[in-house]
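User: Need the bound-state model for S-adenosylmethionine:
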Amino acid sequence: MTKEAGKGARPTTVRLQKISRAFIESAALNAAIDLELFTAVSAGHDTPEAIAKHAGITALNADRLMTMCAACGLLSWKDGRYENADDVERFLVAGKPSYAAAWLRFAQADWKRWGELSKHLRNTSEIRPIGDYETMTVEQARRYHEATSSIGFGAARRFVKQVDLTGRKRMMDLGGGSGAYSITAVQNFEGLSAVVFDLPPVATVTREYIEKHGESDRVGAQAGDFTKDELPKDCDVAVMASNLPQYGAEVIQQVIGRAHDALLPGGEMHLVGEMLDDDRTGPTDAAIWGLLEALANSTGTTHTRSDCVGFFENAGFEDVSVHEFIPDILVRVSGRKRE
Ligand SMILES: C[S@@+](CC[C@H](N)C(=O)[O-])C[C@H]1O[C@@H](n2cnc3c(N)ncnc32)[C@H](O)[C@@H]1O
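Assistant: Bound-state model below.
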């Protein structure tokens, strides 16, 4: 949908009807993943009858679901047989290294809370400073990062292609989760080590990822809350990725300020976040992550690209610049600490 949709020609209800029922598209996608429909189609079970047998559902229901998936562009249909769309084939066929179902179902965990959004928006009880993270257990952190890692390592590979860290010695990875950025960075830049700084239950899970990737000598995990605990020292690189809308402006400003102060002179910082365009009309993804924080009753909200540039400049960073990272999803803002 374009930003201009709904303007110009005489309005009809069509666009509004589509938005009002968009959650059914999500339901169909989630059900198809549950039933391993795309994995089965890829293996040649490409008719409703074959899917019915494979998934243990009726042929009528298989036909309903496949029709919906085709209408959403997830499948195409020719001569009675279905085929996965290219992105579905790459990311939703179980067993492929690029399988990202855990991330694509990440928002589904909040399905019931989204259904009561107006109730959450009316909530005026005291804000929870770190939102849903307050009560996170190690087991929840493990599930959470099974999802983030299924796309985080891809984002990290893009990061090391965009950002040359040659000659850098030590990176702090604030809210580093699975350690995707740290693990990928040390594997790409000789002489670099990294410390992932994340909440205590997450740091336990981070260590599992570091070990699995064989990087325990070069990547460590430090447990802490970046909104109040002391940040790692002796680093000449700071990265903070994919946690921007989880906090309000005051907190983000304060964390970027403290990261600036903790960095060695001449060090660089990269904030990779779900930023809103400066005209505040998109991308939708940035708005979604900000709105999600209403469910958690945290300080979190969406920040624009210029808000983020302002956070860096107020912190004292120089050469502050904005870079496209993953179109419609993530933007990177970078700055350098004076020598
Ligand atoms: C969406 S994950 C992103 C993980 C990783 N940076 C990536 O891009 O793959 C957000 C991470 O920020 C961490 N986080 C959020 N608030 C934090 C805080 N106050 N202190 C430390 N870590 C925090 C969460 O625990 C979680 O691991």
